Amino acid sequence: MTSSNLVYLIALPLFSSALLMLLGRKADKWGHIFATLIAASTFFIGVSEFLAMRDRAVEMRAVTQKLFTWISVGDLQVDAGLLLDQLSISFVLLITGVGTLIHIYSIAYMSHDRDRRRFFSYLNLFIAAMLLLVLGDSYLSLYVGWEGVGLASYLLIGFWNQKPEYATAAKKAFVMNRVGDFGLSIAIMIAFATFGSVSFSGIEEKVGGASETAVTAMGLMLLLAATGKSAQFPLQAWLGDAMAGPTPVSALIHAATMVTAGVYLITRSNFVFDAAPNAQLAVVIIGVITLLFGAIIGTAKDDIKKALAASTMSQIGYMILATGFGPAGYAFAIMHLLTHGFFKAGMFLGAGSVMHGMNDEVNMRRYGGLAKYMPITAITFGLGYLAIIGVPPFAGFYSKDKIIETAFNAGGVQGVIFGGAALLGAIITAFYMTRVMLLTFFGNKRWAEGTHPHESPVLMWAPMAVLAVGSVASGYLLCSGKAFVTWLAPVVDKHKHEHVEFLPPIVVSILAVTAVIIGVSIALLKYRGEQSSEAPNDVSIFTRAARRDLLQDDANEFMFMRPGQKLTQTLLATDEKVIDGAVRGVGATMLGSARGMRKLQSGYVRNYALLILIGALLILGTIWVVTI
Amino acid sequence: MNPTNYLYLSALLFSIGAVGVIIRRNAIVVFMCIELMLNAANLAFVTFARMNGNLEGQVIAFFTMVVAACEVVVGLAIIVSIYRSRRSASVDDASLLSR
Q1: What is the distance between the alpha carbons of residues A412 and A507, in angstroms, rounded to a whole number?
Q2: I need a surface site. Which of A9, A93, A294, A567 has the fewest CB within 10 A?
Q3: Which residue of A lies nearest to B92 if distances are taken between CA atoms?
Q4: Largest CA distance in chain B
Q5: How much of chain A exceeds pLDDT 90, in percent?
């Protein structure tokens, strides 16, 4: 089925972004409202498309729109087209819905910033790029959106680029993302070389006839792309620093939407991964490593936003883990992605609200006892907290529980290892999130002097409240009667796989809840009562390592930055000494010899005459010598 | 008389001319030395013609005279114009090209 409305989803925010940038300060008065209305209108388009899609028969649900013939060179024929199917619409609703809420929140949050209009222009640019990413019907269109969200992310992380460290954080995020983007471009090249097509449908048709090596290579490259965008091991180091951006950005881009693009990519490429078991295994391993990695970092962070960022990394690890299990896991990955979008965005907005009331303090050791002063923030944050650690019946319980179950169902030793790791991750998650809760909202007051915490204005707490409702209800709604799994099945599970059960679901649920209880209990024991406002220094080597992000920056510096600098220095020296030396040497030789030759040109006629004479005599002498 | 002596004379005249061109400064003298060298060459040509018993050398001597006449015309004109512009007939003063 075709539709002509899809393009407006992308065109509206793109137009608004360009308009606000071009008008400059003239739009300062109404720019934020305009951008918010545009975001809301994309949400309404999304909702109406969703309602229309729901009313159609299952086979008719996907909607396409061909825009124009983009590239037509030899065998390569790429149409710029949009595809809205069950998977895309889930993302469209998340992006536009959470996006609109965060636009509303930002009106208040950024009200004191003189560049608020520019901020909203970037936000709209992000919405447009992210929608293009999820609506593109080929890897090439996806790639354009992929780069677009990278650009928007860069611009927004470095929004306060007057601080050099923030600008550096933006650069770091951009460079590390580029590494992943490189993987995506290679994957597209492999796709063209192997299948002669870069569209999803074209590749899906031919994937059965391709060699497994090529498909595995493409899968691994797609995984590399996903690790870059979704901050997964080994390209995870940028996410913590990305918290330099304004908090709404962290909520929208670095928690709810952009960082989950990797999960979308893998789910969208399900036909590739289903044909490449080795690539799938790699996906699972990366997911497990990251979910533990992020969780461990999260236990040691005192900066509330960095703790949440580590948690985001860990939760996306869960999603990546689920996608690695193939058709059994895709729906659960996307389900966790959606619930995570609600509760993590809500918690980030809560963190922003706390910072708003605490003079932009981010150190949790300087908080404490805020529940009394910010009741709405505390409640909405608390609901998000209950959702993320997986307390039934909140959203995270349903989605995370399903992922753990899927991991156990992988069967054999693998299933036990992966399921066990996911359970361990759940314990650590419960621990560090309880820690965040206790340090921020309970216990003794450890505020800096002159701090007067107060509840945020309604424009800020209303979006938090909506997201909190989502954190409570979304899990049950998506999960009841396998609603979401059935909804997504035509995209990710066409062949109706039989899912084996290793452990009965109820056992997994009990295990998961036990994990939560263990994690919360440890945190309660450790962080109950009075806390110091300074981080303790006499800590074990493990805490030290976690505080240093498990040496991720040191590893990158040692393995890539230093050798890279050495290489560039060597190349520079080679350029200066060898290449420039040769060029300058030629010049100097010519100049020197010319200086010597010039002495011969005295300008006196008799000198020339003498030279001619000597020359003639030499020639004669030579002839004389030769003839006898 | 042995024709070789003419050749010695020719060589002597040529050498005098060459040395004159190199060491004298007055353009007129240099010019005369060049004439001397040309005539030394003429003498050699004629001598060789006599020794070999044919006329080719003598013919070439005539050509040389014609060329010398032309050269005198042009050369004297140059010397006169240099003298007019620089008030000197010294060849060393006319060394503008080296500067």
Answers
A1: 17
A2: A567
A3: A604
A4: 53
A5: 30
Which ranges of A158-301 would DSSP assign to H, the alpha helix?
Answer: 164-195, 200-206, 212-229, 238-241, 247-251, 261-268, 270-274, 277-300
Domain boundaries, chain B: 4-90
pLDDT of residue A494: 67
- Cα–Cα dist A346/A333, whole Å: 19
Per-residue pLDDT of chain B (99 residues; tens, 9 = 90+): 788 899 999 999 999 999 998 888 888 998 899 999 999 999 999 999 989 888 889 999 999 999 999 999 999 999 999 889 888 888 877 777 665
In angstroms, rounded to a whole number, what is the distance separating the alpha carbons of residues A589 and A600? 18
CA distance A118 to A25: 9
Q: What are the tens digits of pLDDT across the range A262-304?
A: 999 999 998 888 888 889 999 999 999 999 988 988 888 888 8
Check: CB of residue B24 under 8 Å from CB of residue B89. Answer: no
The partner residue sitting opposite A603, judged by closest CB among B18, B30, B97, is B97
Tell me which DSSP letter residue B63 carries: H
Strand partners, A72: A77
pLDDT for A551-594, tens place per residue? 777 888 888 888 889 999 999 999 999 999 999 999 999 999 99
Q: Give the DSSP letter string of A53-110.
A: HHHS-GGG--EEEEEEEEEEETTEEEEEEEEE-HHHHHHHHHHHHHHHHHHHHHHHHT
- Beta strand spans in A565-617 (E): none
The whole model's pTM is what?
0.79
- Cα distance between the two ends of chain B: 53
Whether B82 and chain A come into contact, CB under 8 Å, resolves to: no
DSSP string, A523-536: HHHHHSS---SS--
CA–CA gap between residue A160 and residue A176 (Å, rounded): 20
**Who contacts A213 (Cβ-Cβ below 8 Å, separation ≥6)?**
none
Interface check for B98 against chain A (CB to CB < 8 A): the answer is yes
Q: Which residue of B has its CA nearest to A605?
A: B91
HSE value, Cβ hemisphere, 13 Å, CA-based, for A363: 10
**Token pair 């040109």 is at which residue?**
A601
Q: In this predicted structure, what is the pLDDT of residue A470?
A: 87
- CB-based contact, A617 to chain B, within 8 Å: no
Cα separation, A199 vs A602, whole angstroms: 78
Is the CB of residue A605 less than 8 Å away from at least one CB of chain B?
yes
In chain A, which residues have their Cβ closer than 8 Å to the Cβ of B23?
Answer: 606
A604 vs B: CB within 8 A:
yes
- For chain B, the average pLDDT equals 89
Only one residue has tokens 């010294």, namely: B90
Residue A184, pLDDT score: 93
Residue environment code for A330-345, b if the CB has 16+ CB neighbours within 10 A, otherwise e: bbbbbbbbbbbbbbbb
Contact A404, A419 (CB under 8 A): yes
Cβ <8 Å between B98 and A602: yes
Do residues A516 and A394 make contact, with C-beta atoms less than 8 angstroms apart?
no
Q: Which CATH number describes the domain made up of B4-90?
A: 1.10.287.3510
